[in-house]
Design a protein that fits this description.
This protein has about 425 residues and is of the alpha+beta class. The chain has helices spanning about 10, 25-30, 100-110, 150-160, 165-180, 195-210, 225-240, 255-260, 280-285, 290-295, and strands spanning about 40-45, 45-50, 65-75, 75-85, 90-95, 115-120, 125, 135-140, 215-220, 245-250, 265-270, 270-280, 300-310, 315-320, 320-325, 335-340, 345-350, 360-365, 370-380, 380-385, 400-405, 410-415. The protein has a 6-stranded mixed sheet with strand order 8-9-10-5-11-12, with helices on both faces. Strands 15-14-13-16-22 form a 5-stranded antiparallel sheet. Strand 6 and strand 7 form a beta hairpin. The chain is globular. The relative contact order is 0.12.
């Protein structure tokens, strides 16, 4: 394997604005460039002085903690008092619209952004003021950032070379990581000879080669087309099953990626964390309007809570229509709130329309291959229903009777949109 030439720090310093490092996973995980003449071995901290040794592909698991972290540029606050814990061995996804602060949070963990206030811990170690190369993290970004003049195996070896790892470690670690991401057969190829999905697999292998304590993924699939993105999602899920101790912070604007991969999801808006919880609880019982609308498409109807039932359901009223829903957040009787029902939980009522809890006017019908999506207007409010393809879909202007299982509907605070 050819020894790659290390880039000049003047040309690729990660802290320089507008000049991101071509190899973020290596930059974030490298040790000092002055460690010459030392012999290193794999351990929980990545590489340390000693003899070469075989160990698990990932280092000992370490969590991530944000303690009241604020990042500001002058008067502009881009991350506002973020407190969040990523437990060892879990995947946490940060999602939100552009400018919400999710990437700033990830870059603060990487050391590319210094907090104005607060602390960041990796495991038990306060890394707030620790330079990126001493944090022992791996990082993968959306544009692959592979060195075009290096073969796949040389790109994977880059971080190890930068740490002056002995050849014995490289001979073991590089093929191992390429096998892990299904790229062993492409070790000799240059990036230009690989597809986008293959290049991203190499970037992930490079990040794992240094055996990081945590892996940071910054929208790693956004540059891929839909089919490759689905395949890569499956690959990332399998990879975490193979490396269950690896802690991952995953930043994305794609709700499907977050729901597919994450144990917990944080939803960000205007620099603040407005919701956090398990993927299923946030989806089924969103704590506010913004969470309901951003994580999955939600139908939200304004209702008034009346009285709770012993079965855990609450009677509500939508206009003149009495409805039932779960009151997961314990909203008091008499409160104005929103009834949240997901499009796939709405059903076309097959019985007497007079017995249906809701009736709506069809505004548009879209066939999307595996399903029909029907846009309706109910009491002046938009509603969307998705279902398996219909042999005789309704026509625009037609009235549809609708129903839903009260267990599938939940109440959301009207004024709790973060």
């Amino acid at each position: 394997m050819k020894v790659p030439t290390l880039p000049s720090a003047a040309n690729h310093h990660p802290a320089l604005p507008g000049n991101p490092p071509p190899c973020p996973s290596s930059q974030a995980g490298e040790g000092s460039g002055g460690r010459r003449g030392r012999v290193w071995e794999g351990d929980a901290g990545g590489l340390r002085r000693g003899k070469a040794a075989a160990s698990d592909p990932a280092g000992a698991s370490s969590g991530i903690a944000f303690e009241d972290v604020t990042v500001a540029y002058g008067a502009l606050v881009v991350l506002d008092s973020l407190s969040l814990v990523v437990k060892p061995g879990e995947i946490v996804a940060l999602i939100g619209p552009s400018g919400s602060g999710k990437t700033t949070a990830l870059r603060a963990v990487a050391g590319f952004v210094r907090p104005t206030r607060g602390r960041i811990l990796i495991g038990e170690r306060d890394v707030t003021n620790v330079p990126p190369h001493d944090r022992n993290i791996g990082m993968v970004v959306q544009n692959y950032a592979l060195f075009p003049h290096m073969r796949a195996e040389e790109n994977v070896a880059f971080g190890l070379r930068a740490r002056r790892a002995p050849d014995a470690v490289l001979r073991e670690r590089v093929p191992e990581c390429l096998r892990m991401v299904g790229m062993a057969a492409y070790a000799k190829r240059y990036p230009r000879e690989l597809s986008g999905g293959q290049q991203q697999r190499v970037a992930i292998a490079r990040a794992l080669a240094i055996r990081p304590q945590v892996l940071l993924l910054d929208e790693p699939l956004s540059a891929l087309d839909a089919q490759i993105r689905r395949s890569m999602l499956e690959e990332l899920a399998r990879l975490h099953r193979d490396l269950p101790s690896l802690t991952v912070l995953y930043v994305t604007h794609d709700q499907t990626e977050a729901l597919t991969l994450a144990n917990h999801i944080g939803i960000m808006r205007d620099g603040k964390l407005v919701a956090f919880g398990s993927a299923q609880s946030l989806y089924r019982h969103p704590p506010n309007r913004f969470a309901a609308e951003f994580l999955g498409r939600a139908n939200l109807l304004p209702v008034k809570a009346l009285v709770s039932d012993v079965g855990g359901l609450t009677h509500v009223r939508f206009g003149d229509a009495p409805l039932l829903a779960r009151n997961h957040h314990g909203l008091p009787a008499g409160s104005e709130c929103l009834l949240c029902i997901r499009p796939h939980d709405l059903r076309i009522h097959a019985g007497d329309p007079a017995t249906a809890p809701l009736r709506g006017t069809v505004r548009a019908v879209q066939w999307q291959g595996e399903m029909h999506s029907i846009a309706l207007e109910v009491g002046g409010h938009p509603l969307r229903l998705t279902c398996a393809p219909l042999k005789a879909p309704p026509e625009p202007g037609e009235m549809l009777a609708l129903h839903f299982d009260p267990e599938d509907a939940t109440l959301v605070p009207e004024d709790g949109d973060g």
